[in-house]
Amino acid sequence: MHWLYLAIAVVFEIGFVLGTNAAKGFTRLWWSVFAIGSAVIGVYFLSLALRVLDVGVGYTIWTGLGTIGTVIAGVLFFKERLSPAKAACFAAIILGVIGLRVAANV
């Protein structure tokens, strides 16, 4: 169940970052509310996952997958450029997340 909690936390982490971008420095009320709400919910589900997971593993996976999700959303929705060098670095993050996931079960 803790991996499900972490997955939910990741989704809300991505929502938080995208909402913060759309809030334009917290000058747009509803996007600001969305961003803050997403942050609170994301941290809540992270805290549930950390009941079982080591904090280093859980937090690193949360931020790593949140980063990857945000990059993908940036490319798809905001027309941000993903160079080969950036893609290689993001692939390294994904490999690190997979490694931590495997190591957490050892």
From TrEMBL:
InterPro entries listed in its UniProt record: EmrE-like (IPR037185), Small_drug/metabolite_transptr (IPR000390), Small_multidrug_res (IPR045324)
Keywords: Cell membrane, Membrane, Transmembrane, Transmembrane helix, Transport
Localization in the cell: Cell membrane
Membrane topology annotation: Multi-pass membrane protein
Transmembrane segments: 6-23, 30-53, 59-78, 85-104
Keyword hit for Membrane: yes
Coiled coil: none
Main location, first listed in the record: membrane
Protein family membership: Belongs to the drug/metabolite transporter (DMT) superfamily. Small multidrug resistance (SMR) (TC 2.A.7.1) family.
The name this protein goes by in its record: DMT family transporter
Organism encoding this protein: Actinokineospora guangxiensis
